[in-house]
Design goal:
Spore Coat Polysaccharide Biosynthesis Protein SpsA, Chain A, 9 helices, about 15% strand
Length: about 250
């Protein structure tokens, strides 16, 4: 705990057996209270590895629910565990667990309700192995999103995120897509509900065992991101009233 705040790390897992141990071993358990791993019907022995490592809570989906569907299970379990701060960390070791302390302290001390690890702040994205086409798409999409949503994030596409409990109890994340665009919808919801998001520089790691989506899926994701941004804009000016922007507790 930090300042009596319960910290729960959630790991949305899919075929993460080769990288899970390295990720888990770097989690700072001097401040992290519990870990939740949700396995989305992996084809490897992710669940067995998790149990062997002693992961506190291991949840297995009987059917693959998708990246967004996995996160829904993660966050609902974290809320059930009475978490004050929830860290979403990919178990593929693409993001370093060593930033958990810094992200948690910012939230625990009331500086920001959400903190994201940005691969774009600094110059580490391409140096860390991010494919050039993904970097270019990232920059183009982020610029467009900032204009439509009215914010100034360095990137909207990181998978390393920390939230306080209030955010998860306020936004309607269960109404979001079960696919990869879930991440972007969640950012849109956070801003729509009036919360702020801080960013911290995060090293980039691309290697064969790290999860990544191919060019075709990237294009589908990109169109989904643009759709989310326009939906946010039209809801803000009152032309739409979408379910994902229903505020639950605010």
């Amino acid at each position: 705990m930090i300042g009596a705040k319960k910290i729960v790390v959630v790991l949305p897992a899919y075929n993460a057996a080769l990288t899970l141990e390295k990720t888990y071993n770097e989690i700072p358990f001097d401040i992290v209270d519990e870990v939740v791993l949700v396995d989305d019907c992996s084809r490897d022995n992710t669940v067995e590895v998790a149990k062997k490592l002693g992961v506190t809570h291991v949840i297995s989906h009987e059917k693959n629910k998708g990246y967004g569907g996995n996160q829904k299970t993660c966050y609902n379990k974290a809320l059930e565990l009475k978490a004050d701060i929830v860290i979403m960390l990919h178990p593929d070791y693409q993001y370093t667990p060593m930033l958990i302390q810094s992200m948690s302290y910012m939230i625990a001390n009331g500086l920001y309700p959400a903190v994201f690890g940005s691969r774009i702040l600094g110059k580490g994205a391409l140096k860390g192995g991010m494919p050039l086409y993904k970097y270019i798409f990232n920059r183009m999409l982020t610029f467009t999103q900032n204009v439509l949503i009215g914010q100034k994030l360095s990137e909207y596409h990181t998978g390393y995120r920390a939230f306080n409990r209030e955010i998860l109890e306020t936004i309607n994340f269960d109404a979001n897509s079960d696919d990869f665009v879930f991440d972007n919808q969640m950012i849109s919801q956070i801003f729509y509900a009036g919360f702020e998001i801080a960013e911290i520089t995060c090293p980039t790691k691309y290697f064969p065992e790290a999860s990544s989506i191919n060019f075709k899926r990237s294009m589908k994701y990109g169109f989904g991101v643009l759709g989310t941004s326009f939906t946010h804009f039209f809801n803000k000016i009152g032309l739409l009233k979408s379910e994902i922007y229903i505020i639950k507790n605010k």
